[in-house]
Amino acid sequence: MSKVLDLEVRVPSKLDYIPLDKYQKYMQIVDQADKESDEANEFLNLKALEIFCGLELKETYKLPMNAFSAILQQLAKCFAEETPLVKRFSIKGTDGAVIEFGFHTNLKDMTFGEYVDLDNYIGDWKNMHKAMAVLYRPVIGSSKGLYRIEEYEGSDKYSDLLRYMPTSIALGALVFFYRLGMKLAKRSLASSMEGMEVKDISRVEKQYLEKNGVGISQFMLWLEVMSQNLTRLPKNQFINV
Question: Are 222 and 107 contained in the same domain?
């Protein structure tokens, strides 16, 4: 925490220190903004200070210009960090108990229920904590570097808690999921074009796509759109200061 004039400003030093719910809130505002408007960019900068640094909107106008710019530069630095996949992390629940979560151990063999829920939630920042509750669940056993996670009982069981997971971990999971999906889709499309049986996409994925009348090429398009929406960082909003 730093003090500028009479204002206490909490500027995160790392993406790890920004909880997912704050990132969700900001990204929903970004999605609704006119990116070509200078006024919109100025508004997004103000909202960034409000959401990530705990400043009220009226307080941001009291900041000296050099402090205003320095804070935005620090936020941009956070959002420029690499976000590798984190397979296990711990978070404290509302009862004070610490729960260790583990990334899904085998995405290709996820259940139909997991797949449908993930498909419903992962394209919408408002529901990203629910998508994380599909990809991450409590570790119930581990040995020699391997671990088992709790059986899936629906996203509602842990989604509220995962609102407070580090944004860096959520983004790392999304990037990993996107890259894996693109790899499967490209292989499947190549096989489909050659008139061969699709073998590289899981049975659950294939059944779900066929049921909903979605071809492999459409699936690839969905993945490309997901990449643009989910791996996009808001750092570009912090340059016009």
Answer: yes
Return the axis-axis angle of helices 128-135 and 167-193, rounded to nearest 10°.
70
- Burial string for 6-39 (b: 16+ CB within 10 Å, else e) reads ebebebbeebbebbbbbbbbbbebbeebeeeeee
What gap in Å lies between CA 128 and CA 132, rounded to an integer? 6
Number of domains in the chain: 2
CB proximity list for 160: less than 8 A, separation 6 or greater = 129
Quick one: CA dihedral 29, 87, 184, 214, positive or negative?
A: negative
Look up the domain containing 60 and give its range. 2-81
**Average pLDDT, integer, range 65-86:** 90
Local structure of 9: helix, strand or coil: strand
Shared domain check, 211 and 131 = yes
- Looking at the fold, whether 48 and 166 belong to one and the same domain comes out as no
- Per-residue pLDDT of 109-126, as tens digits, reads 888 899 889 888 887 889
Write down the pLDDT at residue 224.
Answer: 52
**Its pTM surpasses 0.85:** no
Compute the distance between CA of residue 163 and CA of residue 37 in angstroms, rounded to an integer.
30
Q: Point out the domain boundary residue: 81, 96, 123.
A: 81
Length of the chain: 241
204 shares a domain with 186? yes
- Burial class from Cβ neighbours inside 10 Å (0-12, 13-18, 19+) for residue 187 reads middle
How much is the average pLDDT of 69-91? Answer: 91
